[in-house]
Amino acid sequence: MSQFDRDRQNPPRPIRYFAQDESRFGLKTVLGRVITACGVKPIGAWQWLFQAFWLYGAIEPATGASFFLQFSHVDSDCYQRFLDEFAQQFPESLNILQVDNGRFHTSKNLQIPENVILLFQPPYSPELNPIERLWQHLKADLKWASFKTLEQLQTRIDQLLHDLTPDIIASLTGYDFILDALSALDAV
């Protein structure tokens, strides 16, 4: 069979770019600024409970597509499960996944799905990962909120994720330099 026939039978997959990260959500109150009258000390109820869960997420800045999973901790086993389920969610494309240099992202035991390519960002540069803006957006809605149980917090996070539309995600994460690079890629 010629190369031409193979290419016709297996057309190239579309390439999609996603930004991926993990964020901790816990019962310890997220503090923030409070507006008060001049000279009045702000008062807010807070708690120091150190129970938490982790939200693993991947977002596509160009379209606002997203994928999230909750785990009790961060390690290579959880990350493997995240990668496997992410790959199943977007099977028709070749998915470039921007990640930081976390140890579990570079584990020797990690088996990267065939439709995923990990793109490592420079060390100590979280500002380059667009999903960081999404974490800030979610946590802004949790400032001064107090939850008695992790289940209550998980319910609130589920509601916040449900309320995220692709347009909101794209507006938060669509950095100009990323969108320009992706449009240049499409032009080739």
Note down, in words, how this protein is organized.
With 188 residues, this protein is an alpha/beta fold. It has six helices and five strands; from the N terminus they run αβββαββαααα. It has a single domain (13-36, 44-187), classed as 2-Layer Sandwich (Nucleotidyltransferase, domain 5). It has a five-stranded mixed β-sheet with strand order 3-2-1-4-5, with helices on both faces. A hairpin with a 6-residue loop joins β2 and β3. 17% of the residues are buried. One of its GO terms (molecular function) is nucleic acid binding. Residues 20-154 form the Tc1-like transposase DDE domain. This is IS630 family transposase.
Features:
188 residues, alpha/beta, Nucleotidyltransferase, domain 5, 35% helix, RNaseH_sf, Transpos_IS630-like, IS630 family transposase, Tc1-like_DDE_dom
Spatially, the strands of the biggest sheet line up as: 3-2-1-4-5
Range of strand content: 15-25%
CATH class: Alpha Beta
Radius of gyration: 20 Å
Protein name: IS630 family transposase
InterPro entries: RNaseH-like_sf (IPR012337), RNaseH_sf (IPR036397), Tc1-like_DDE_dom (IPR038717), Transpos_IS630-like (IPR047655)
Domain Tc1-like transposase DDE: 20-154
Organism: Leptolyngbya boryana CZ1
Condensed summary:
By secondary structure, the chain is an alpha/beta fold.
Topology of helices and strands:
Blueprint: H1 3-9, E1 15-26, E2 52-59, E3 66-71, H2 76-89, E4 94-99, E5 116-120, H3 131-140, H4 150-163, H5 166-173, H6 176-187
Parallel strand pairs: 1-4, 4-5
Antiparallel strand pairs: 1-2, 2-3
